[in-house]
Amino acid sequence: MQPSLPADAGHVEVPACDTPPAAEVAADGVAPEVAPADPPVYDPAGFWESRLRHHFDMIGVGYSRLGLPFNLALYRQRLVVIGRTIRRFRIKVAGADLIELGPGTGYFIDHWKHLGIGSLVGLDITAVVTERLTEKYPEYRFFEADASERWPLPDASADIVTAFDILFHITDDERFAAAIREAGRVTRPGGLLLVSDLFLHGQPFRGFHQASRTLADYQACLAEAGFEVLGRMPIFVTMHPALDLPPGPLSRLANDWWSRTEQRLMDEPKRGYRLGRVLGWIDRIVTKVCWGGPSTELLIARRRTG
Ligand SMILES: C[S@@+](CC[C@H](N)C(=O)[O-])C[C@H]1O[C@@H](n2cnc3c(N)ncnc32)[C@H](O)[C@@H]1O
Questions:
Q1: Which of 32, 76, 278, 298 is the most buried (most CB within 10 A)?
Q2: pTM of the predicted model, to two decimals?
Q3: Homologous superfamily in CATH for domain 63-303
């Protein structure tokens, strides 16, 4: 059986304030006759604004239940794979015009800066991200914008567009396709789109604020937007739920491993220092020798020139 999507898979859980109150039960144990509450509706701007105003850190943008130390290790591993991808695909970052979708706390911006990026534009659905990153990086531009609507940027104005842990938060399929079309519009011919997601081979998952789509869904939308897929680089193997394994003993083993690891971290987040270091080294080595993986990957697509 395909493991089920954890509430926090990849990223964040629904804060308590987003959960409708359960119907109150009277003293005699009988629920009063009230109409059942409507299921909560995901409002991306409100959800992220509230979440990031409370936690403008790795808890806000990351896998919150695992605690800060382990999230730090997850981000270190993401950075390792980004560096490896740049080398393997010979991506010219120095002097490039880069757009970062959903930059969150701006974790990757210093890295781009260090590599000599020419210009950087961040598009985030929240005011808090736009305000804080504008203050921290006055040399770059940040817009409060929904990536699934028209971007406030001219055609063919970027060499690189990144979408790290954001496209699966666009739960509406039409809007998801529209975001990829916008990436196609603003990326110069020959330019690159880097996306992190699960790229599932089995069934897609749908949660409250995320929709993990299949590799085939991505391939169709990317082709329609004028991109060709160059490859995928695995990011996590042991450090994240292995949701993209075919049903069978390996999938059960991985699921069991992840449940225990997650529980240990939830019980004592400080374990994340040691566990993050050990698993970080394992994933660093294993992802180097694998082409494709059981969990989050980085997809590299190139804007066609013709
Ligand atoms: C899980 S966080 C990832 C942040 C950052 N990319 C990282 O990897 O640390 C998702 C980010 O995307 C932003 N976001 C979510 N939906 C968006 C949308 N439709 N348009 C633009 N930004 C969005 C959120 O505000 C948040 O900053």
A1: 298
A2: 0.89
A3: Vaccinia Virus protein VP39 (3.40.50.150)
Instruction: Tokens for 101, please give them.
Output: 């979708």
- Is the distance from CB of 148 to CB of 170 less than 8 angstroms? yes
Binding pocket residue ranges, ligand 1, CB within 6 Å: 11, 44, 48, 61, 102-104, 107, 123-126, 129, 146-148, 164-166, 169-170
In the numeric block, which tokens belong to residue 288?
A: 């180097």
CA–CA distance, 181 with 235 (Å, rounded to integer): 25
* Residue 41 falls in which region: left (phi positive, over 0), alpha (psi -120 to 50) or beta: beta
In sequence order, what are the residues at sequence separation of 6 or more whose Cβ sits closer than 8 angstroms to the Cβ of residue 60? 12, 51, 52, 54, 104, 105
- Are 211 and 205 spatial neighbours (Cβ–Cβ below 8 Å)? yes
Domain ranges of the chain: 63-303
The DSSP 8-state label assigned to residue 246 in this structure reads -
Q: What is the pLDDT of residues 42-67, one digit of tens each?
A: 999 999 999 999 999 999 999 989 99
Q: Is the distance from CB of 211 to CB of 224 less than 8 angstroms?
A: no
